[in-house]
Amino acid sequence: MSAPIWTVAEVARALGVAGSFPDTPIDFVTQDSRLVKPGSLFVALSGTPSGGFISAFASARDGWEFADKAEAAGAVAMIVPHEIAGIRIPQIVVKDTLIDGLWGLARAARARFHGPVIGLTGSAGKTSTKEFLAAYPDAYASPSSFNNFWGVPLTLCNAKADASLWVVEMGMNQTGEIARLSELTRPTVALVVNVQPVHLEKLGSLEAIRREKVSIAVGLPEDGVLVLPAGIKASEWKGKVVRFGEHAEVHEVAHAPHGESWQVVAMIGKKEIAFSLTPGAPHRVQNALAALASIRAANLDAATLAIKLDRVGIMTGRGVEQAVGGVTVIDDSFNGNPASVAAALQSLQARHMTGGRRIAVLGDMLELGDDAPSYHTGLTRHLEGIDGVYCVGPLMRHLYDVLPAGKGLGWHDDPATLKPGEVANLLEAGDVVVVKGSKKMFWVNKFVPGLVAALQAKA
Question: What is the pLDDT of residues 140-164, one digit of tens each?
Fold first, then answer.
């Protein structure tokens, strides 16, 4: 049986809370009462984030209102801002359950781990790259997309002390957030997967985005390593840099498609390494190179990771395929920006077809600021080999109006009122369709499950 990640007494000591606490083992730390299981530590966060953080999913209720549910589900202790009447398990009281509680415990977790820590960020593909890194034997990585002000500290709090390395994904909702998360994580290797026009509405320029992403180096020690794509500048960091991409230290030599898989040969320093990716796609090769470069920077064996990469599949909403009614549906609807939409189109172009059409259902790319129309019309550069495009949302009208003759399958202004059956009726047996757009376009509205159901009814 594995050792617990904490005891109740250890948590109290880590947070500087005086008193007598039991040595009850803790196997899981969570801020969500719905995820509590026997042996959990429940961290009761405020519904309104503290510490100057911003959440797109702020709650009207506070976590401590669910203390009784957490206790009933098996929590063995909880971190609260004040004593909760009627609770029988130990309560560790701190002033601010986010900054003094969750972040304080995360700092203690990081301080006791002496192995390599890879922190990563990027405009697109960071979660997929994290999954590649997580394939390294005995690695511990951020679950799902735990990359914000509560997800990163939860990752650290739950990380296994005997792991070969920790992999911590970092995202942002505002300027300065990545630097703060990096200072908390204190990575030994910091990876920037890419710098693309995402969050332009908040950051204003591609240069501002570059600065924000590169600020992940803030948490690096002097002997740390910053891993960057070829061509991305980082004058802010004076230490060691490892680069990946064309003509870089880590780069692709060749690839050959074999069905859904790609057989890839890469140069890692002065050594050639061959590996497979399933499914294969240009952006997946780049993400794999980023992961291999980071493993090399951490003084671990890149070849050990390379042989595992073929086992890394696609996460829900990020390219999962299913065949229904003779149509192959690629659900890439979790999010969308100019870089990831272009990658989705390139992957569709690269797909071997024995019949049928390559179809893209594209929704608005949000948070692009004043240049949003031009980013949407600019997608025409990536439509060679695409047989038809269905556009959704007011911004995608800009693309629809400039589509080459014969490619436009239709346009709908409001994703909330789009009926999946309308799109299903445009599809024929043998077609391959990718669904891509910002999260609010298709993912939130559960469009792809509706499309699948409509295709099943049509079959």
Answer: 999 988 999 999 999 999 999 999 9
User: Do 100 and 81 meet the contact criterion of CB atoms below 8 Å apart?
Assistant: no
Contact 197, 214 (CB under 8 A): no
CATH node for 320-458: 3.90.190.20
Q: How far apart are CA 416 and CA 150, in angstroms?
A: 30
Structure token digits, residue 435: 């669904």
The residues spanned by each domain of the chain are 6-101, 113-311, 320-458
Whole-model pTM: value is 0.83
CA 403-409-411 angle, to 5 degrees, is: 80
Which alpha helices (H) appear in 196-267, and where do they start and end? 200-203, 206-214
| CA 136 to each of CA 121, 226, 242, 294: distance values in angstroms, whole numbers, following the listed order | 18, 19, 19, 11
Write down the CATH superfamily of domain 6-101.
Answer: MurE/MurF, N-terminal domain (3.40.1390.10)
DSSP 3-state helix, strand, coil percentages of the chain (rounded to 5)? 35, 20, 45
Cα–Cα dist 48/58, whole Å: 6
Tens of pLDDT, residues 79-116: 999 999 999 999 999 999 999 999 999 999 999 999 99
Assign domain 113-311 to a CATH class: alpha beta
CB proximity list for 457: less than 8 A, separation 6 or greater: 421, 424
